[in-house]
Amino acid sequence: MNAATADKLAEVVSYVFHPLLVVIPTLVIAMVRLGSTLGQAIFWTVLSIVSVNVPMAILLFWGVRSGKYSDASVSIREQRTSIYAVGGACLVILLAVLIIGKAPVIIIACLISAVIATAIGYWVNRHTKLSLHSAAMAGCTAVLLWTVPLIGVIMAVFAPLVGWARIRLKHHTPVQILIGWMVSMICVFVVFQLML
C-alpha cells in the first residue's frame, strides 16, 4: 500500500468511526439488548444526538470555518479546551434530562461514564492530547462487551485500526491513543459495575 492510499484509508476509518457517529448504534444496541423496545431506544438515542452530537458538530463546523480550530480534528491541543467545555456541558444537561425522564439505566450509565471521561480528558488535555476517536471507540467497545459481547469483540478488532488511522494522519501519538482507550474503558467498566 502506497502512502497516498494509506492516508486515504486512514481518513475513511476516521470518518466511519468518528466519535459523534460510533456512539449512535452503540446506544441503540445496548438499550435494546437490556430490554428497551426499538422505538424507545431510537427515541433516547435521537434525544442524545440532538442534545450532544448536533451542538458539537455545529461547534466543529463553526470553529474550522472561523479559524478558531486548525482542522476538523482540532489537532492543536490548546484549541481543545472549548471542545471539552461545550461537550461536557451538553453531556451534563443530557444526563439531567435522562434522569428526569426516567430513561433506561443503561443510557444513564453510558452518560455518567461519558461525563467522567470528559472531565478526565479535560484534565489530561492540560498536559497532552487524548485521542477522542480512540476514547469513543474504546468506550463504545466496552459498552458492547458488557451488553452484547460478540459485537463488542468485533468492535475491539477495529479499535487498533482507528488508533493506526489517527497516528497515520499525525493527529496523535501511540501514547495519546492508549490514554484515550484506558480512560474511557475504565470509566465504563467502573460505572457499569456499580450501576448494572
Automatic annotation (TrEMBL):
Keywords, alphabetical: Membrane, Transmembrane, Transmembrane helix
Family matches, as SUPFAM superfamilies: Acid phosphatase/Vanadium-dependent haloperoxidase (SSF48317)
Residue stretches spanning the membrane: 12-35, 41-62, 83-100, 106-124, 136-163, 175-195
Listed InterPro entries: PAP2/HPO_sf
The name this protein goes by in its record: Phosphatidic acid phosphatase type 2/haloperoxidase domain-containing protein
